[in-house]
Amino acid sequence: MKLPITFDEFKSDPTKAITFLMLVVVSVLYYRAERQSKAINDRCEQRLELCEAKLEKMSKMLKTQDSLCSALITEISIYKNLGKI
Fold first, then answer.
1. Which residue has the higher pLDDT, 85 or 83?
2. Could you report the per-residue pLDDT of 1-41, keeping only the tens digit for each?
3. How far apart, in Å, are the Cα atoms of 78 and each of 8, 65, 84?
4. Measured distance CA(31)–CA(18) in Å, rounded
């Protein structure tokens, strides 16, 4: 690959060399940051799916406990009405 700027031009004008190197460094850092961001987002999505599954499971358990509690309250009130308690 032939670079648009030659080494002789860099030698004669160090500002061009520094500018060119800074552009390369910024491009590499940007690409790296994008890759890290994607990896972090992927991990967060996996954790979110896991949390949503756990939340759904807990919600079902809570509904079951709520219906059991309602049944027990009804049963206790029946026993009170019958004079057993």
1. 83
2. 676 667 777 788 888 888 888 999 999 999 999 999 999 99
3. 99, 20, 9
4. 20
CA–CA dist 4, 20 (Å, integer): 10
Residue 60 lies in a domain: yes
Q: What is the DSSP letter of 83?
A: T
Report the chain's terminal Cα–Cα distance, integer Å: 92
In a domain, residue 50? The reply is yes
Residue 1 domain-assigned?
Answer: no
CA distance 5 to 80: 95
Rounded to whole angstroms, how far apart are CA atoms 35 and 45? 15
